[in-house]
Model the fold of this input.
Amino acid sequence: MRNALYECQAPAWVGLARLADLPAWMSEAARSRSSLLEENRDMARLNSAYMLRLQQAGMDAEELARVGAMLKMPPLQDWNYVVGRVIRRDLDTWWQRMTVQLGAEDGVRKGDGVVCRDGVVGRVMEVHAYTCVVELLSSASFRVAAHVDGDMRPVTYVGTPAPLFRDPGGEATNLPADMIADPARPLRLVTSRLGGVFPDGLTIGYMRHLEAEPDGLFQRSKVLLNPSLTRLREVAVLVPVLRAQVEAAEASISKK
Done:
């Protein structure tokens, strides 16, 4: 009954999200032709720069695969980025989550990572037919393997509940005792591939101050997250390529 009620409410949430986007669409439609041409020119320049980076990334991937084959290392996990709109937010001291217009029909499964252009957003906690509920990394039950940028020693990131009208935050634990943070140049906390949910190097947040844990062997720190985390309008779900291939093969076999 709970799932049936959710599926009945989902179309209303989608409609409300589209109505909220209507003023922005009307303002874009009223823009002058010259401004649009100027933006198209800027986009063409960015596309050219990205094409060059893609070529370089392809060469780096080939070199990485060659070295991995020489060392007989297992291949790294690869993901497809499925983009969807945020249609509902549930943000208070108890819950830190949002509803995204992507579901089981799009290949999304429970536990998939969710990202945006600034880094990590959260993890899928519920999956329905055409929508999913995402637990934000500021939620108290969110936990992920991480490390400091430039230092591969693993640490643990845990979300911390934030009061109303306050920016989201988290906490990093098991930080090495010899690590030092400078408030002028905060340490960047990034994801680790050890967790199996996110690729390595995606930004989680920044750390300005470190303090010793009670055991004296490790340190901990408050993690400053992206303030726009609770105002996102589009996110991308990381769908493992291998899983998508296996499901496609199983679907083709079942049809036969």
Remarks:
- The longest helix spans residues 33-71.
- Residues 2-71 form one domain.
